[in-house]
Every structure is written in C-alpha cells, then in structure tokens.
Design brief:
The structure holds 2 protein chains of 2 kinds.
Chain A lengths: L7 H141 L3 H14 L4
Chain B lengths: L1 H8 L5 H20 L20 H4 L9 H9 L4 E5 L2 E4 L1 E6 L2 E6 L9 E3 L4 E5 L2 E5 L7 H4 L3 E2 L4 H26 L8 H21 L7 H19 L13 H17 L3 H8 L8 H44 L5 H38 L4
Antiparallel strand pairs in B: 1-2, 3-4, 3-8, 5-6, 6-7
Chain lengths: 169, 375
C-alpha cells in the first residue's frame, strides 16, 4: 500500500495546485464576466415578460369589461329606441284616429248645416217665387181685366152676363 | 504477473478501468506481459522505459509484439509532452520545486526520457513520464526524489488552460450579447447557450437546492461547462484536444474537493445536527455518527470516481478499438475499428454531456441537503 502512494505528492501535487488555481480563477472570472450579467439579464427579462403578460391580461380584462359595457349600453339603447318608436306609433295612431273622428264629426256637422241652409234657401226661394207668381198673376189679371174692360159694351155685356147668371130667387 | 506489472508501472490509479480493459484484451496482454519482466525495484533505472510520443515504435518489444496496454495507459495519462503525430511532440515547460530551489527548463531536454538533464540543483531524468532525481550514474536517487515536487506545465495543465480560454471567449461574447440586447429575445450563439444555462438553473439548481439557489449558480455553471468542455476536448484526437483532463483522477479529485468544501461550509445547523445528533436512539450513536461522517466524504468521493472512471473508460475503449488494427496487423480490420470508434465517439459525446450533468446535479443535490430547512 505504501508503494502504491509513493511519490504521489512529488509527481501530482503540482498538477492539483495548477488546476486549483486555474479552476478558481475561471470561477471568479466567469462569475464576474459572465454569470452575474447573464443571469441578471435573464431574470430581468423574465420579470419584464411576466409584467408584460400581467398587463396584457389586465388590458384583456379591461377590454372585455368595456365590450360588456358597450354591449349593455347598446342593448339598453335598442330597448329605449324600440320603446320610443312604439310610443311614437301609438301617438300617431291616436292622432290619426282622433283626426279622423273629428273630421267625421265636423263633416257631418257641415253637411247638416249645409242641409239646413239649403232648406232655408229653398223655402225663401219658393216663397219669393210664390210671391212673384202671385204678383205676376195679379198684374196679368189686371192687365187682362183692363183690356177687357176698355170697351163699354163688353162691360155691359159682362154685367148682363153676370146678372144673367145671378138669378134672383 | 499482470497485477505486479500494474504496481510497477505506477499507473495504479487506473486500476478500476484497467479491469474492464483486461477483459477486452486479456488475450493480447497475456502474451505481451510475458515479454515485460516486471521490475519492482524502482530504485534502479529502467533504461527501456516507455516514452511518450514514440509509442508506436517503442512499444514493440524485441519480437515486434505490439503492447496495447502501454500505449493506451500512456495516452490517457498526463505527460510532459503534447504528442502531435509520429515522433513529433510539443515540448512543455518543466518546473521542479525542490528543497534547494526551483528548476525551470523545457521537457525537450529529456529527449523523451533518453537523457538525464543536469538542472541547477539536481540531475533529473524522465522515467515513464515522471520526473526523478538521479545520481551521476543515472540511477534514481530515492532520497533526493522525495524532495523534488513536479510543478510542470503538463499536457493536462495546458489543456485546462486551453479549455479556460475557450470558456472565457464563449461566455464573454455571450455576456456582451446580453448587454447589447437588453430585454430582447436571444439571438445567434446567445440563443444556443441560453437554454443550457436555463437548463442548469431550472432543472439542476432550483429543484435540488430550492430558493437559495442563486448563491450557488456560478459554481454549478462553472462546474458544468468546465467538465463538459474538457470532456469534449478530450474527444478530439489531436491538438488542442486529446488530453484526458476530466479522466485524470487528480482533476476530478480537485473538483470534488471543491464540492466537499462548498457543501460543508454552506451547511446549516440542521445539516450538522443530522450528522452529529441524528434522530436515532442514543445507543446507536457510535454507529450512526461515524457512518454520517463517512457519508460526508464518500459523497464527493463518488463524484470523483464516477467522472474519472467514465471518461477514462471512454478513452480506453476508443484506443482499444484503434489498437485492434495493430494487434491483428491487418489493414482489413481498420474499417471495423473505425466504424466502432465512430460509434463510440458519438456515444462519448452523449457521455461527455451526461457526466457533466450528473456531476453538477449531484453537487446541487449535496448543496441542497446542506442548506435545506427542516421543519
């Protein structure tokens, strides 16, 4: 066993020391030059990505909220519009109906009035025609009579005629 | 016979994977082992020492037998040369610290172990790629050698530096991409690296450690990428790869030792209570406390062995398959070898990732048990 390890330090201690120096130097240099900046940059980027994802999620939620709100607003507006339209239609129908009835009533009234008027006019006109006919008849009768009774004889004849008819009973 | 030879080679640390290797190649090693009379007395210099960089020539014994064991062990071991091809190697600096002072020279001075080099303080010779102090006659001076500590920039040290440079280049460029593109999606190379970092954080650190994970992220990430890149570099057959850094038990020892330190220094009172005052009847304490204390050490120890054995085994299998060509001395076997090596390399790509993942995950798990709050 002693022979086995004989001279091991003489021949190999140097290698162990050299590699220890080399490895520790590598460790220190890489830590300073590479690992700290690289791991820092990676975790920085991870944080950035995480926060970006979180804010994207927030934006998505906000978007969904806004969309929902818009939709409900739109729905409400639609309902309101329908309501207004319905009311307007009812109002229109009512107005039309009212107008119709009032027009009918007015028409009937006017027709009635016109009838009365016409009747009155007719009566007046008829009365006037009657009067004029009467006057004309009187005038005609007067003229005829006057013509008849211009001649004395005829008057005599008429009187005698009349007298003839009148029989004294 | 074989086991004595292992002891004499001084590569005993590889014995675990060695066993596996021997089942594969017992037929050839049993032949070649006969030709290697074991020289257990390390005080005398073995002049036929096997030298790196020239293995294809050197490892043929007198009868021309090819010794795959030596070739493979040498390939997965550390070296004072960085072998490129054939007899060409990059000499690496040798730094020796002894009781008398420091010696610094190029490994080319050893001439692949042929020559002894007269340093300022001792005369040195490279035997089986390990530096020994020798006397004037070229015989190892055991007493002097015990004062010489080898701080050479070996192949594994240089490979570690290369991997560190690659890691620094990769991650400083990725880091600057993060600075340029603050808050934006990753792009290009950055988007290749980021999922891996996220994987370490979300699938390794957070599930095992919990909300206190941030403090340990630099260690876990560094461990993960360091092990992975070294596993991958180990798969490259030529420079700048080819070194077996994560399959070197001293490297895995260092990594698991760091884990041991980190886990136990970050342990909270619940962790220590669990070890020193476990919830068992008091008369079980003589058993439980030693078991718990062994557990503290055995967990990182398992990390050490697991990584080392897995990566070394991968290298050994690939090298064994390549060795088949030389064992059969036939070019006809080459397509078969190459096909299997290709398969193994692809498998090793997976294993390289997997072992880095397992090491990091178990580290996170141990840290998690140390920092966990008990209610």
């Amino acid at each position: 066993m002693g022979e086995l390890f004989e001279g091991i330090l003489n021949h190999h201690l140097g290698f162990v020391v050299w590699s220890a120096v080399a490895f520790l130097l590598l460790l220190v240099m890489l830590k300073k030059l590479a690992w700290t900046p690289i791991l820092g940059a990676i975790s920085e980027r991870e944080r950035f990505i995480e926060s970006a994802l979180a804010s994207a999620e927030n934006a998505k939620n906000e978007m969904a909220r806004l969309t929902n709100e818009n939709e409900s607003l739109l729905k409400q507006a639609r309902v309101e519009r329908d309501l207004i339209l319905k009311e307007a239609k009812e109002l229109k129908d009512k107005i039309v109906a009212e107008a119709r009835t009032s027009a009918q009533v007015e028409g009937t009234k006017m027709i009635e009035k016109a009838k009365h008027e016409i009747d009155a006019q007719k009566v007046t006109a008829l009365n006037e025609v009657k009067n004029q006919v009467a006057e004309l008849s009187i005038q005609i009768a007067e003229k005829i009579l006057r013509k008849q009774f211009e001649d004395q004889q005829k008057q005599q004849a008429l009187v005698s005629d009349l007298l003839k008819d009148v029989k004294l009973n | 016979m074989i086991s004595t030879r292992i002891l004499s080679t001084g590569k005993v640390r590889l014995s675990i994977v060695y066993a596996f290797f021997f089942t594969l190649f017992s037929f050839s090693t049993s032949l070649s082992a006969q030709n290697h009379p074991s020289d257990t007395t390390s005080s005398s210099v073995n002049t036929d020492a096997q030298i790196p960089g020239v293995e294809n020539v050197e490892h043929k014994t007198e009868e021309g037998k090819f010794d795959p064991t030596a070739v493979i062990m040498e390939h997965i071991a550390d070296s004072h040369y960085w072998h490129l091809w054939g007899n060409t190697s990059i000499p690496l600096p040798v730094i020796l610290i002894s009781d008398k002072g420091v010696d610094l020279f190029s490994s080319s001075k050893f001439n692949h172990g042929e020559d002894a080099y007269q340093g300022n303080h001792y005369t040195y010779k490279l035997i089986e790629d390990q530096v020994f102090a020798v006397d004037t006659t070229g015989v190892v001076d055991k007493e002097a050698s015990s004062h010489v500590y080898d701080f050479s920039i070996t192949k594994n040290v240089a490979s570690t530096w290369i991997s560190i440079i690659i890691l620094l280049l990769i991650f400083t460029s990725v880091s600057s991409a993060y600075k340029k593109r603050v808050g934006k999606a990753p792009k290009g190379f950055q988007s290749l690296i980021e999922p891996i970092i996220m994987f370490v954080r979300d699938d390794i650190a957070i599930p095992n450690i919990g909300y206190k994970y941030a403090k340990f992220m630099p260690l876990l990430l560094t461990l993960f990428f360091f092990i992975w890149i070294n596993n991958l570099l180990g798969l490259l057959p030529i420079f700048p790869g080819g070194a077996n850094v994560t399959g070197n038990i001293f490297m895995t020892f260092l990594l698991s030792f760091i884990v041991l330190i980190v886990v136990n220094t970050s342990g909270n009172k619940y962790y220590w209570k669990h070890i020193l005052l476990p919830d068992v009847p008091w008369w079980l304490y003589p058993i439980m406390i030693p078991v718990e204390i062994i557990g503290v050490v055995s967990k990182p120890f398992a990390l050490m062995i697991r990584l080392y054995a897995n990566i070394s085994a991968g290298h050994i299998i690939v090298l064994s398959l390549i060795s088949l060509i030389f064992i059969f001395k036939s070019i006809a076997i080459a397509p078969v070898s190459v096909a299997f090596v290709l398969f193994m390399d692809v498998l090793e790509l997976l294993v390289g990732f997997l072992q880095a993942f397992i090491f990091t995950m178990l580290t996170a798990l141990f840290i998690g048990t140390a920092v966990q709050e008990h209610h």
